Amino acid sequence: MTAIEDRERIARAALTRVIEPGDESGGRWLGRFGAVGLMDRLTAMEVDETTLPGASQRRLTSYRTRASAADPQRDLEAIAKVGGRFVCPGDGEWPTQLDDLGGARPIGLWVKGGAQLRTWAVRSVAVVGARACTPYGAHMAGILGSGLAERGWVVVSGAAFGIDGAAHRGALSAGGATVAVLACGVDVAYPPGHAELIRRIGEQGLVVGELPPGGHPTPRRFILRNRVIAALTRGTVVVEAEYRSGALATARRAAELGRHVMGVPGPVTSGPSAGVHELLRGEGTLVTDADEVVELVGDIGELAPERQGDVRPRDLLDPVSARVLEAFPARGEVDAAGLARDAGATTDETLGRLYELHALGFVERAGGRWRLAHRVQGGPKARRGDS
What's the rounded Cα separation, in Å, for the pair 316 and 330? Predict the structure, then answer.
């Protein structure tokens, strides 16, 4: 690493304490002046209207106050102590799909865990949804998490209660890969009730955040965190969400970025599924399992298996044999000529099919006539005929 690269990393680390996540104005100034140049302007002894063109005095004062208090060396040492690192645009580990966010692109990402973020993000899917989820929602999120992990996909979510936690646990239970994107520092367990889950994710997967060590979450930071989840992954699956939901915001941002948007349907009477159903009426695609998710986000040829009901012996008959069998009365005996007439076949053709049906156990011969075998007579079709 060169000295210039050191200065850039340190300046970006400092700016994560100055500029709020998703601040597009800050992102534009960063793009114009560079991280080092922007920090130099914010920490200069004197400022004027050219320091940050277009910035209000209030914003400039806020930036300068934060910049003067930033200690990036301390933050970089703190992240190293917990086995983490700070990843910047231009690093080999930087997921370049985040660049799609333009001015709202993260200044950098604080990362905890041994995996390579860029490699994992290439084959990742977001699974998000309601915190106050139903048992059905938690079950589906867990099934999706484990199913995607078993197929070699990385499950990305926000480590919140409800759907997020269920998706992470599903991936972990399958011995798979999962990434938690936090709205706080990666050394902060939030929510506290998920401290053990976040610890496990840090050991088996990755914990990622835009805020420096010790950074605390706010409602706005949760909303802005969702744009990282949307941009980082190939697609977003929503499992249960009310009409007003952060999960729906994630899905809509994903759609804006050209990512796949999917939803898991629920009962039409379920409030937690109402937002998902609205999504499915618009830009979303209905999915019910990991195979269907992979068919959308995966490579060419990764198709979900064909769905069909139980195959019954009748389903395997050729069309003529099926017509002959359907021509039988529910009770009683019939001759081959009568069957041929009702089946729309010749007598010789019908006789050939009758012997095949006899061999398969569908019919019995009674002298010169034929009847349904006893097990066929007692089947659903015979009962409907009797009613």
Answer: 21
Nearest Cα to 126, choosing from 94, 85, 97, 89? 97
Q: Parallel, antiparallel, or unpaired for β 109-112 and 260-264? A: unpaired
Other beta carbons within 10 Å of 195: 12
> In this structure, which amino acid lies at residue 27?
G
pTM of the entire structure?
0.81
**DSSP SS3 for 87:** strand
Name the residue among 255, 252, 234 with its Cα closest to residue 302: 234
Cα(98)–Cα(121) distance, integer angstroms: 10
Count other C-beta atoms under 10 Å from residue 212's C-beta: 26
* H-helix or E-strand spanning residue 214: none
Average pLDDT over residues 351-369: 90
Reading across the β-sheet that carries 260-264, which strands appear in turn? 84-87, 109-112, 206-209, 178-182, 154-157, 124-129, 235-239, 260-264, 285-286
Helices marked H in 195-346:
195-204, 219-232, 246-256, 274-280, 290-297, 319-326, 336-343
Q: What is the CATH number of domain 97-297?
A: 3.40.50.450
Q: Domains of the chain: which residue ranges?
A: 3-70, 97-297, 313-386
Is residue 128 within 8 A of residue 247, CB to CB? The reply is: yes
What are the pLDDT digits (tens) for 46-68?
887 788 988 899 999 999 999 99
Domain 313-386 belongs to what topology?
Answer: Arc Repressor Mutant, subunit A (1.10.10)
The rounded distance, in Å, linking the Cα atoms of 306 and 265 is 19
What local confidence, expressed as pLDDT, does residue 314 receive?
Answer: 82
